[in-house]
């Protein structure tokens, strides 16, 4: 566990150190470029850097072809990455064509590793700034191409889709989780379309906890729960499996209100961030000191398609499998919100010369069939935005992965309470990373920093990212 905490600290230090290196420029329409087209603060080791020894790669594309850019970094890495990415492209192209879509498709996918990845990102960003670039973006990674998608939306990078959605023929847009879909909207209209999302959850058997808390429950209510059941769910902490399930996810979830990207305003104060951080640290210490015998068995994870585990896949610490009726408890915010983050999304380049064909792809991705069958929807660590998918009627992976009717109802109850949604961007990662560093300080492994100092640096970093 100490090793894991130390890694969190290193990630955060990289986040903060890279904040001052974001260049400024202009898009082709004259709007200012932010970190979306420059080096990402959270991606200091990933962002492209050209040099005389390694010039930016030049590619030739058929101007009449629909050009699709896929960034699938988070779910396809390692020796098989190139082969799996090619398979994904072939599968997507054949399914689009089988559905009656464009025949002439070319892929401009971003490699998953090494210098080729950095070069491709720089080339695509340069093209976007020049009024060109891919027609369709499918991003199921850590947003290195657009480190803060919300800012890219405000700056006019993407085509407004409202008129196309009104005439959609493939996707059942009314069946999409609406608060999640809303995250891709600006005052101008729908700019990006979320495909998958997640949030931190604690899972009990329904026998141990018959009902999830009612809408409007606050984080303070969770802390005051005398049984300890809700209090355990108020922070992502070391469980009986000795595993830290994304502890940094706790901070955005408790704050709830994060950023207003239209006004570039942080919606919480530095003092509030410090208070939340300190309360979470104290809560973790208390839970670990109490042990796990005083409450029913539970496990914690991110809300994703892995909730539909096969019957044979029993949790080692808690006897829960697919056939076990469960109750899912989110981390409620101080205002009673349930906050989710977008893990994967799609959008259309405002400069596209093929808007109808490009929207055909987006529309297809929003269909239940696509979200059942495409690899990108079950390798990206999120829950599909189409609300029918992963029910027994609409399983994934050839019928192997689904939730029982009772547990699908539990999922529906949980997503019905979602009220705040953000993209997993540089700002959210900075908040999460700062908490990881504070945990290491609390453990005594870092002695030359303080929690107060890290929180102050984090808040300054957020302000700087918003002003770039």
Description:
The chain has helices at residues 2-17, 81-98, 114-129, 149-154, 162-166, 178-182, 219-223, 229-232, 250-255, 270-290, 355-365, 368-373, 405-416, 426-443, 451-467; strands at 25-26, 32-33, 66-71, 105-107, 136-139, 185-186, 189-190, 192-198, 200-205, 259-260, 265-266, 298-302, 326-330, 338-348, 383-384, 418-423. It is an alpha+beta fold and 468 residues long. The strands form 5 sheets. Strands 3, 4, 5, 8, 14, 15 and 16 form a 7-stranded mixed beta sheet that branches. Strands 12-9-13 form a 3-stranded antiparallel beta sheet, with helices on one face. The protein has a two-stranded antiparallel sheet with strand order 1-2. A hairpin with a 2-residue loop joins strand 6 (185-186) and strand 7 (189-190). Helix 1 packs across helix 14 (426-443) and helix 14 (426-443) runs antiparallel to helix 15. It is globular and about 65 Å long.
Question: How much strand content do the residues show?
Answer: 5-15%
Q: Helix content range of the residues, please?
A: 25-40%
Contiguous uncertain segments of 5+ residues: 1-53
Give the count of helical stretches: 15
Overall 3D shape: globular
Instruction: Give me the Rg, rounded.
Output: 22 Å
Instruction: Look at the structure and give the mean pLDDT.
Output: 83
Helix/strand/pairing category:
alpha+beta
Give a count of the beta strands, DSSP E runs of length 2 or more.
16
Q: How many strands, what sense, and barrel or not for the largest sheet?
A: 7 strands, mixed
End-to-end gap: 36 Å
